[in-house]
Amino acid sequence: MGIKKKAIVLLSGGLDSAVTLYIAKKQGFNCHCLVFDYGQRHRKEIESAKKIVKKTGCSCKVLKINLPWGGSSLLGDKVPSTYVPGRNIIFLSFALSYAEAIAARAIFIGAHTQDYSGYPDCRPEFLKAFGAMAGKGTKAGVENSSIVIKAPLLYKRKSEIIKIGAKLNVPFNQTWSCYAGGEKPCGKCDSCYYRRKGFKEAGLIDKALC
Amino acid sequence: MGIKKKAIVLLSGGLDSAVTLYIAKKQGFNCHCLVFDYGQRHRKEIESAKKIVKKTGCSCKVLKINLPWGGSSLLGDKVPSTYVPGRNIIFLSFALSYAEAIAARAIFIGAHTQDYSGYPDCRPEFLKAFGAMAGKGTKAGVENSSIVIKAPLLYKRKSEIIKIGAKLNVPFNQTWSCYAGGEKPCGKCDSCYYRRKGFKEAGLIDKALC
């Protein structure tokens, strides 16, 4: 493993980031996963992330972060939007710090434009701007060996992501997508809806629901 | 206070960020301070930050963050560099999230190029790139009312910063600059050296040492 190039992979426990991790591994990276415990209502995804990591044999750090200003239904308040202000910016910033510390030269994120086009921090122009900033604000950047932000799913539809994941044997049954915070997926939230639609379009069965 | 425009101010407890806070207040902002407890060896600066905030009557949040990959002498390990990978990037990212949540349109940071020209995340080109990224990755940015990063000390020498602070009645005796983590400033670390030199050049007495 020592001679492989290193990457930080942002892992949520959801389907997209799990597929992203498997893509990073397939590309030959020695993956260091970063999971965030930010008080999300759907805490099961953290357990899912740990299970997925265990299966891949990668290293994993779970970071507890506190966003005491709320502003999102993911955090359990009454705001209807699921947007957490600056969430991906904060996640990527920690990943950048981690990458610098262990001399990784790539950060993988499962962001994509298809389902959540309303999230400003999932847009291609944001990821590009973040990469440019990383090139200015890190030692790696200054030394002209910048840290690259990789979002291999950026322009993929959910059904395509599922097909790619199926080929790579991603353990979909261990991923968690539901926002509702129950014991089983609610089947009603946006995330459950897009997952079901994706599996249907891909012509595959979602074993997490079996 | 309610009608004043809001700003987030990154406060460390050091001299530079204290002067920055007083500049932001002078500019008419309703300031919301953000202090980070990241396990720094010089923990006295957190207490200093709280005292400074109390004096100004601004609001303040202390955020505990964990950087389990170290990489800096500020964090108490043996690496000689005082550079914490991505520290300002992480701090600014939290500030950005906070700004979005309370609809603040400015973030003040005490970064300057003079003393620490080696820190990549204190460079003007970094702050500019961060601002550009903020314009792409936030709701405010998407709505064309972007959040501005303000670094009023960026091109100032330490002695100039001290002169500005003196005019604004910044309580210098409550600021903390030393990196060593003792009860009193060590007088030997880089930060103590630049502070002493700055006061000398400004022709002022550092009451923190009286």
Q: How much is the radius of gyration of chain A in Å? A: 16 Å
**Order of strands across the main sheet of chain A:** 3-2-1-4-5
Q: Which pair of chains has the greatest number of interface residues, and how are they split between the two chains?
A: A-B, 46 and 46 residues
Termini gap of chain A: 36 Å
SSE order of chain A, as H and E? Answer: EHEHEHEHHEHH
CATH class label of chain A: Alpha Beta
Q: How many structural domains can be distinguished in the coordinates of chain A?
A: 1
Q: Report the oligomer.
A: homodimer
Number of strands of chain A: 5
Tell me what the CATH architecture of chain A is. Answer: 3-Layer(aba) Sandwich
**CATH-defined superfamily of chain A:** HUPs
What is the overall shape of chain A? globular
Find the structural class of chain A using helix and strand composition. alpha/beta
What fold name stands as the CATH topology of chain A?
Rossmann fold
Number of helix segments of chain A?
Answer: 7
- Summed over residues and divided by their number, the pLDDT of chain A gives a mean of 87
Question: What about the largest sheet of chain A?
Answer: 5 strands, parallel
Unreliable stretches of chain A: 73-80
* Share in helix of chain A: 25-40%
Strand content of chain A: 5-15%
